Each structure stands twice: as C-alpha cells, then as structure tokens.
Amino acid sequence: MHFQLTDEQRALRDGTRKLLDGRFGRDRLRAAVDEPALDRALWRELGAAGFFALRLPEEAGGVGLGLPEAVLVFEEVGRALLPGPLVACELLAGVVDGVAAGERTAGLCDGSAEAVLWEHPADCDELILVEGGGRDAAGAPGRAAGVYRSAPDRVACAPLTSVDPLTPLARVTDFPRGAPLAGPDPSRLRREAALLTAAQQVGSAVRTVETAVAHARERTQFGAPIGSFQAVKHLCAQMLVRAEIARSAVYAAAVTEGAMDVTGAKLLADEAAVRNARDCLQVHGGMGFTWEADVHLHLKRAWLRAACWGVAAEAEEALAADLLG
Amino acid sequence: MDLAYTEEERAFRVRLRDWLASVLPTLPARPDPRDWPARRAYDTAWQRMLHDAGYADVHWDAAPTIRLIFLEETERAGAPYVGANFVGLLHAGPTIAVEGTPAQRQRWLPPVLRGDEVWCQGFSEPDAGSDLASLRTRAVRDGDDYVVTGAKIWTSHAEVADWCELLVRTDPDAPRHRGLTWLAMPMDAPGVTVRPLRTLAGTAEFAEVFLDEVRVPAGNRVGAENDGWRVTMVTLSFERGTAFVGEVVACRRVLGALARAARANGRWDDAVLRRRLGRLNADFAALWRLIQWNVSEAGAAPAGRGASAAPGKGGGVPGTGGSVFKLRYSHARQELYDAAAEVLGAGALDAGHEWVADRLSSLSYTIAAGTSQIQQNIVAERILGLPKGR
Known about the structure:
- The complex is a heterodimer.
- By secondary structure, chain A is mainly alpha-helical.
- Chain A contains ten helices and eight strands.
- Chain A has a domain at 186-324: Butyryl-CoA Dehydrogenase, subunit A, domain 3 (Up-down Bundle).
- Chain A has helices spanning 7-23, 26-34, 40-48, 67-80, 86-92, 186-218, 230-256, 259-284, 295-306, 312-324; strands at residues 106-110, 117-119, 126-131, 146-150, 156-160, 169-174, 220-221, 224-225.
- In chain A, the strands form three sheets. In chain A, strands 1-3-4 form a three-stranded mixed β-sheet, covered by helices on one side. A three-stranded antiparallel β-sheet of chain A has the order 2-6-5, with no helix packed on it.
- In chain A, helix 6 (186-218) runs parallel beside helix 8 (259-284).
- By secondary structure, chain B is an alpha+beta fold.
- Chain B folds into three domains: 7-114, Butyryl-Coa Dehydrogenase, subunit A, domain 1; 119-225, Butyryl-CoA Dehydrogenase, subunit A, domain 2, CATH 2.40.110; 240-383, Butyryl-CoA Dehydrogenase, subunit A, domain 3 (Up-down Bundle).
- Chain B is built from eleven helices and eight strands.
- Chain B has helices spanning 7-23, 36-52, 64-77, 86-99, 102-114, 228-238, 245-265, 271-300, 320-344, 354-362, 372-383; strands at 119-122, 138-142, 145-156, 163-169, 180-186, 192-197, 206-217, 221-222.
- In chain B, the strands form two sheets. A four-stranded mixed β-sheet of chain B has the order 1-4-5-8. Chain B has a four-stranded antiparallel β-sheet with strand order 2-3-7-6, with no helix packed on it.
- In chain B, a hairpin with a 2-residue loop joins strand 2 and strand 3.
- The longest helix of chain B has 30 residues, at 271-300.
- Chain B is globular, with a radius of gyration of 21 Å.
- At the A-B interface, helix 6, strand 8, helix 7, helix 8 and helix 10 of A face helix 7, helix 8, helix 9 and helix 11 of B.
C-alpha cells in the first residue's frame, strides 16, 4: 500500500498551482469579482494545457490520467477559487464537442435537486441535465433517469442573485428533454461531480488555514502576534485537522470510486471548507467582515458547493443506511 | 496514491489470519479485569505465542504497513490486546533499541519480546502532567547507584511490572529540559511503593508510584546523564500513529452494532440520531484513511528522519501527523459513545453495559498521551509554524 502522491502526481499538483498562480492570481480574482463573465481566453488556455481532457484517453487526444489526478487538479482549482463551469467541463469533455479543448463550454445541472441550479448561465454553450442516478436511482416522478442535453436558449429560468459573486446562478424552471444521451451514466456522473466538488472544498479549506495562519503571524495585538495566543492557535489547529481528515477521505474516494466513500468525503469536505472559511474570517477580525478581504469569497463558494451534488442531510442519511447494509 | 496492498503484504495478512483462526480458539477465558496477576499472565502468555509464531517484533522491525495489517487483523479476529506488554513493546523497548548499549539491548529486549518481563512507565508526576519537563523526582549519584526520591502517577500495570522506565532529574540547576535522565528501575527495589488509583470508571487501571531513596544501578541509565529529555522524546513519538489502528477497527464495528440496536429498539426512527450515526460513519471511515495516509508516509520516510526514532530498519515514526489524527479520533470516540448512550436510552444508566463502560473510559482519550489542548499547541506551533506563547 502506498497511499501517498507519486512523483508524477506531485509534479501535476505543483504544475497546476504554478499555472493558476500565474494566470489567476489575486488581481485576476478580484477583477472577476467585479466582472464575473467567463474569461474565454483563460478557458482556452486551460483547454490547451489539457485541463479538461485530463481523463480522456490518449488516443482520443486526452491526457489519459485518472480520477486521483483530476482530484489533485481540482484541489488546486478550489485553492485558487477559479470560477467557471469547471466540474461540468471536466466531466463532459468527452460528451460535448469543443469542451475538451476549452473552445466551448458546457454546464451541468442536477435535475433531482430541490432547486435545479445552473452555474454561469450566460457563459454555457450547451447545458446538460442529469436526472436520477442518485441513491433512489429513479428520477423525479414521471421522469426517467438519464442524461439530457439542451441548447441554453431553450431552457426556461428564473433569475437568482447568487450569494457567490464569482458564480452567477439561474434557477431552471423548465428543461426541454429529448431522448437521453447514450454515453454518460447518471450515477457515475453524479458521483464524479460530487468528488470533484469535494476536491475543490479541500483546496479551499487548506487555503483558508494558510490565510488564517499568515494573518495570525502578522497581526499584532497586546504587543504580540495574535497567533501566539492559544485561543487563536487552537482555532487554526482545528482548521488543519478538518482539512487533513477531509483530504484523506477525498483522496481515498478518488482511488476506490466507491459510492459511500464519495458521499462521506463530500460531507467532510463541505464541512471543512465552510467551517474553515468561517474560522478564517474570525481570525481576521473586523477585516474578515469586509468585501476587500478574500475570506468571504471562500465562504460563499463553499456554501454553494456544499449545496451541489449531495447535501449534508442526504449524505448523512445515506451513510446511516449504509451501516445497516 | 494507491490503496492496494502488495503481494507480500497480502501474503502476510493471509498467513496471520490463518494463524489467528488456529490459535484463538485454544486461548483460556479472559481474566477478571480486577485480577492483575491473572491479567499479566494472560497478556504475557499471548505475547509468548506471538513470539513463538514469529510475530513478536512486528511493532519494531516490520514496515509500518505490516504493522497496520497486524493490528487490523488481530482486532478483527478478536485477539487479545497488547495489554501488560504495552510499555515494553511500544515505549521502553523501542527506546532501548535506539538509545541503549548492546549489553542493555541484550539484557532487556529479548524478555520483552518473549513476554517474560513487563514494563511500566514513570514519566508523569502529580505536579508534572502536560508540563512534563517540570518533573521533580530527584536522582542523586552515590557510587555506582542513583538514589531516587519522588512520586510518579498514571502508571499502568505498576502492580505487576518488573521494570519501570523512569524519568528523573539529575541536575536541578540546569535548564529544565537539560537536567533529566532516563533510568530502568526494577520495581522490586526497596523503597518503591505502589498505590492503585481508581478511575471514574470504577476500576483501578493505573497507580501512583512513590519512590523513597530507591537505589538504581548507574548501569541502568539509558543514554547519557542529563540527556533524558531527548531519549524520552524518542519514546513519546512512538506512541502516536499506528497505536490506534485496532481501536478504529473496533469503533467501526461498534458503530454498525449501534445502528442495528437502534433499529431493533425503534430509535432508528429518530432522524437526528440516524444522521449522527451517518456522520460518525463518515468520520471513522476518514480516520481509517488518515491512518493509511500516515502509515504510508512513515513507510516512505527516508532513513534518518523518522527512522532515527524507530528501532527497525523499515521504521519511521508517525510524527506530527499523529497529533492531527489523535485530535479528531479522541473526540470522535467520545461522540461515538455519546451516540451509544442515545441508542441505549435509560440503558445508558446501567454501568454494567459494555458500551457504558466504554463511554466512561472514552473520557480519558482527550487527556491521555497529550491533552487535546496540548495537541492543538503542537499542531499550531510545529506544523503551522505559529509563534510560541501563551
């Protein structure tokens, strides 16, 4: 057993971090807050770097890597708070033409969710809806489980002001369904979407620990760095514990691809990202409450991701049922 | 990033499983937990069986993954715990293996591996708990002996131990970490008094040890005089990591039993309880993965890093990663048994119930081997690099 990153996986992680640092640093992040339209040039660049074709076989022009590698890349994405329909494009690269190269974009909606949310509605060239394939297997009453596609202009939406300034949202009210697509399997798509979302949560959780620690070393009160006070230290220590536990769960789920492993990993990663962002905010004190600090961007995105591809209540029920299985 | 076991690791597992299946039915009944001599006899007999079957030094020489498999399989099979052999196998033994002279290794290690001798630990004192370096038990050199006077506390198996790994102050004028020395003290030496301490669970799981001018031969000193803090740290770092493998396996089994009990008694209909159990399922699954992660890391550690603290060639010490693990595990264990109480309802007031006894003992987990508060300081200062301070 060697449950550690291989040298190649380390190189992939480091390379991704470097690419994102260079192309989506803090200035670009803050610019995206003011102007959330997708940066198509960046998208094409990511496509050219093999970002979306990561898991496509080499004979199909892909990079030929597996789910663990995709998880490492998405951890970096979460760390950088890179916006866009990333999970959708990663999973649909072999389904929708042009997505693998970053030339076109696709969105992915969970048709079985309480509210069918569509991320970046103005920037998707195509919309895919996955119906059913969850724990209950079947879709909503009267609908067959399956994966459906639609041209975005045929989808009816209600507007929604997204809590996350980096992720515009619409609420889908009507999605015209044709015959289901033959290729993708709904439960697999759902599982992988949950896992890649969880990977981003881990990246965010790790980043907010680092941000909190950096601030706690820098900020001086009562004549000492606030990080020398145990009350602050212990907040930071618990943040690391959450991030590391979630990371182990997410990496393991990437290796096993087991449904319960993914469900548990998403639950813990959601919690790590949300609670770490809140603790990071707390460590920042008043500045943490400002628009100018980046902390709220992590928190809001963490909330959004926690609401996608399996929420805590569903996950806990599924994991409870698993104990009896 | 791979969770598959190698052929060698799988073969070890199969061989061990077969052996356990053949010997466990031949074991005598478990002793009364209040009968210390019987417990010692039972635990050491088990160690002797492991020794004769070639598993004696699995904690020392084996690669961390082999150790993990050993602990996982023995727990699954319901084999006896390390029990009275704990300090010898996991604390004093590894310390002597790394820091002892060849003669000391020859004198003390084989009896530990054979289950012939039992060790206990004399580190903590009534006034030196988390702040271990403030300990005051004095050792004064007199000819070929040290004369030791003081008091130790939280000493498990003191009533039945042959030896005590003892941390004493030899230079009261030196900076506090620099005046300590590590001694192997025979427990039958004149001046040693053992007083059992009753825990809140009602049982006497450890003792106070009073030392009144106890003479310990200078040849029983491991490491240099006044270098005892460093020698001791070698031992302490060995405590974290794979130590909890068997317990996590056991917790996951208990969790399944809780779910079945809740369904049988109707409490499964309570969504709040159900969701708590589901959450614990995720928690313990993740803790298991973190063990696998830490063990893989220890196995991959280059010689000279973790390996310096491990007696064996394949060793490596789960270091600060162990603090992250213990912080979550100790609380998760308490949450597990709180959930058990919820499942039991009024039955949670029956101290005779196994889960209630385990609930009581779980209260020590956030205190023993470094309180959660100390662990958080360790994580914050040594991993995150936050400045020391109060």
